[in-house]
């Protein structure tokens, strides 16, 4: 029964979170937008104390069940492990806890968080790693499948599906995603929860509390026949059948051991007073250590606060735009500043996968690799859209009402006269001024003394919000004649 409940809850959570990442219609947001907010590290960074308290209580009552039913990366490893089990059953063995690796990784993780070094931090955080894989590997596959159905529907004069471009957001992120999924698949296939119990900082953090959980896996030594099936089916390698002990710091309460035991010697229940099945040494020291680490993480959070060809009616090939070199990167409205964004963002890429305007993509900057970056080659940040602020679970992008977003300045437009088609080709344009939602651009004569000279844009920086409509809709190729320069600090105008 324990295993059945765990699989049912894990299936719902995994499907919901995965759908959030791969869905491009916005449908999943109405049903599952609450799921990312249950992720431990994101809740800590967002200072969501209610969720943090819930997860700690859940761990103190049920053990590290978070890793089995809430963490999508943990569930994905279970899927790989299940596939491996099809090939060879009872393939795991007991191994001692690698403290020399687990705790230094946790310390490094906290240091990276304090230092704001997002790249390594994101590779260690489990939800961020899953988001990286889902956005760069799973979503393109999902969209490609949708496009096949759209083509079939179109053949039968049906519009149940519509085409969506599949494009490469960032090559480094794609490569890292593929490498990550291969490594996790191999580890889970061969050894089960190796990543969770040796690398994952969230798992190590929760392990301090799981030692003292109210419900645990217990041996009945009178029924046990030392058949070793429990150890051979424990994907956390935490059951020593020879000594009838369980390492509760690594046990993720999957229920495999109970199901595999043919003698009913294992149970998931309260710990009896005379029970001997524990590996907890010096519980008082562990309790103090757990308190210090949890306090440190919460304090840290408080301090941190394509190449597709575009065709014009099939007649002329339009050259793709090239992103300009911005002195200051653009961060989404609601992120408040580049510093705040870098300190809170876990790089889960949920905002990237859900951006309906294709404005967000993984950064290729080494210091902020895989963090969301804004660019306007495929669209612009529409003032009426606040999807990224709705889905961010870590507080890196604060929720913004539509009217507030329309008055939030994240940057300002800069005109590059030498690129303007009005100057180079002698034609009338004015695209930037016509489509500016803030009315921040006026067309003025290029020669103030000659009213007949070509008209060029003049930007009112005090009114510009940096939405990028001018940059996106500028017909100049490959570089726009007008582009948006980011601001270190956002402000309301």
Could you describe the largest sheet, including whether it forms a barrel? Answer: 2 strands, antiparallel
Number of helices, counting only DSSP H or I runs of 4 residues or more: 22
Overall pLDDT: 86
The N- and C-terminal alpha carbons lie at a distance of 58 Å
Spatial order of the strands forming the largest sheet: 1-4
Indicate the overall shape: elongated
* Count of DSSP strands: 12
Q: What amount of the residues lies in strands?
A: 5-15%
* Share of residues in helices: 40-55%
Question: How would you describe this structure to a colleague?
Answer:
- The protein is mainly alpha-helical and 493 residues long.
- It is elongated, with a radius of gyration of 27 Å.
- It has a two-stranded antiparallel ribbon.
- The longest helix has 30 residues, at 126-155.
- The chain has 22 helices and 12 strands.
């Amino acid at each position: 029964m324990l295993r059945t409940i765990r699989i049912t809850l894990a299936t719902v959570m995994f499907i919901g979170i995965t759908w959030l990442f791969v869905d491009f219609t916005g449908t999943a947001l109405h049903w599952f937008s609450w799921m990312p907010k249950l992720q431990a590290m994101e809740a800590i960074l967002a200072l969501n104390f209610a969720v943090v308290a819930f997860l700690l209580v859940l761990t103190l009552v049920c053990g590290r069940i978070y890793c089995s039913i809430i963490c999508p990366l943990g569930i994905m490893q279970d899927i790989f492990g299940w596939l491996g089990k099809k090939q060879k059953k009872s393939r795991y063995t007991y191994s001692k806890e690698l403290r020399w690796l687990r705790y230094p990784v946790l310390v490094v993780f906290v240091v990276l968080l304090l230092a704001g070094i997002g790249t390594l931090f994101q590779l260690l955080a489990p939800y961020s790693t899953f988001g990286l894989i889902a956005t760069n590997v799973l979503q393109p596959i999902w969209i490609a499948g949708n496009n096949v159905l759209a083509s079939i529907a179109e053949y039968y004069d049906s519009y149940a599906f519509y085409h969506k471009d599949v494009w490469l957001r960032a090559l480094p992120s794609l490569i890292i995603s593929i490498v990550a999924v291969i490594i996790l698949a191999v580890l889970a296939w061969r050894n089960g929860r190796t990543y969770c119990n040796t690398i994952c900082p969230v798992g190590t953090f929760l392990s301090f509390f799981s030692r003292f959980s109210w419900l645990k896996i217990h041996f009945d030594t009178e029924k046990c026949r030392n058949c070793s099936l429990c150890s051979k089916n424990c994907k956390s390698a935490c059951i020593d059948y020879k000594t009838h002990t369980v390492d509760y710091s690594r046990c993720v309460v999957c229920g495999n051991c109970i199901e595999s035991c043919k003698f009913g010697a294992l149970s998931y229940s309260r710990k009896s007073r005379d029970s001997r099945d524990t590996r907890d040494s010096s519980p008082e020291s562990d309790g103090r250590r757990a308190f210090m680490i949890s306090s440190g993480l919460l304090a840290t959070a408080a301090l941190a606060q394509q190449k597709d060809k575009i065709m014009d009616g099939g007649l002329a090939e339009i050259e793709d735009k090239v992103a300009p070199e911005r002195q200051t990167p653009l961060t989404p409205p609601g992120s408040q500043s580049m510093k705040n964004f870098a300190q809170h963002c876990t790089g889960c890429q949920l905002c990237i996968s859900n951006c309906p305007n294709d404005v967000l993509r993984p950064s290729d900057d080494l210091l902020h690799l895989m963090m969301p970056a804004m660019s306007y080659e495929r669209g612009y940040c529409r003032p009426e859209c606040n999807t990224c602020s709705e889905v961010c679970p870590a507080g890196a992008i604060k929720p913004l009402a539509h009217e507030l977003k329309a008055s939030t300045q994240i940057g300002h437009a800069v005109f590059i006269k030498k690129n303007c088609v009005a100057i180079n080709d002698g034609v009338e344009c004015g695209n930037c001024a016509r489509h500016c939602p803030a009315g921040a651009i006026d067309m003025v004569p290029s020669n103030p003394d000659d009213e007949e000279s070509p008209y060029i844009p003049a930007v009112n920086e005090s009114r510009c919000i940096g939405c990028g409509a001018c940059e996106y809709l500028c017909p100049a190729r490959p570089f726009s004649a007008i582009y948006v320069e980011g601001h270190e600090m956002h402000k309301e105008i």
